[in-house]
Design brief:
By secondary structure, the protein is of the alpha+beta class. The protein contains three helices and 14 strands.
Length: 167
């Protein structure tokens, strides 16, 4: 009888441990279905709402389950000064390192403007500004995408890109 109890307890512990391991998620790019579940239809920035473009959305999930995603927005209702640097929205649950500069979790606007990649808080104040790279060898540039790069990613806007690493 004791052997049965010990075997049952051992089986229960093994089952619980395997369920815990199964719930750990590997860091990965978000699928189209996962993006549909997280990308909002509109994004509030500088006093207005702008429609997001789900077809131009990308993101990733870290091993601890935290999500980071970006999408282009329709900024046509904004002033020319804002349109020059506000091209998309970025929401992150993790601290990020973008091009060598740390960014706290939060909701931001971003853009590949003039000669810099700029991340702004929702009041249109610069939170991060840094240089971007250009990939001249890229054959089929798309408006927005993420590409795995070691333990991080490259966020592309056309042929321009910045490194993004979750911390």
């Amino acid at each position: 009888m004791n052997n049965v109890r010990v075997a049952a307890a051992g089986s229960l512990v093994t089952l619980l441990l395997s369920l815990g391991v199964a719930q750990n998620v590997a860091q990965h790019l978000l699928s189209a279905d996962e993006l549909k579940n997280v990308v909002p239809a509109e994004f509030f920035f500088r006093g207005k709402k702008a429609p997001t473009q789900l077809r131009n959305a990308t993101g990733f999930q870290t091993a601890d389950g935290k999500v980071t995603f970006a999408a282009l927005v329709d900024a046509s209702g904004y002033s020319t000064a804002i349109q020059q640097k506000y091209q998309g929205m970025l929401i992150t649950e993790s601290k990020l390192n973008i091009g060598g500069t740390d960014l706290a979790p939060g909701a931001y606007g971003f853009g590949f403007a003039a000669d810099k990649f700029v991340v702004m808080n929702v009041a249109n104040e610069d939170a991060l500004s840094g240089s971007y790279q250009t990939d001249a060898s890229l054959k089929r540039a798309v408006p927005l995408k993420l590409v795995e790069d070691g333990s991080g990613y490259k966020l592309y806007g056309g042929k321009k890109w910045v490194s993004v690493k979750p911390e």
